[in-house]
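note to self: dont lose this again. the chain is below, predicted strucutre after it. 192 aa total, dont forget to put it in the shared folder this time
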Amino acid sequence: MSVSRCAWAEDHEILRLYHDREWGVPKHDDRRLFEDLVLDGAQAGLSWLTILKKREAYREAFAGFDPAAVAEFGPARIEELLGDPGIVRNRQKVESAVANARAFLGVQEEFGSFDAYVWAWVDGAPVQHRWRTMEEVPARSELSEALAADLKGRGFSFVGPVIVYAFMQAVGLVNDHVVDCHRHAAVRRMGR
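---
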């Protein structure tokens, strides 16, 4: 018996595992939220498969995605990262991850946690979509545009509306599994 899943996840085992275990599952741990923010920014212009293949190297390079540790990275550490073949060696993306760690700490200080901040944008519960095809799923939304603008105002970068929408999908702020996907109903139940 074949399993029905979102079409984007059919082309590679890594994508299938990510889709079936993580994508759209509501995340409330600040380290996981920071991880997804960094990885979604790193993806800009690249495939998600490329980033998933590099995720373990990113975890090692970025101190297990501890924002307090990453916020302390100075110029020498950034240069080291730019020589690391395990990550995307793009200066703007690496410097953005460090700057975003600092902005992340500011949000934690103001709201108690990044989790409290970001989930307030959806009133604490995932937006439940009922898309029938992947073609219906938007690349951005009014909500991602507003959240992106707020993040930019707080000093974040690589957080345009498309990247923020991908982040929202990844961390479960929105349930964008198509309705005939085997994960749609399961993820919907998690959001209650």
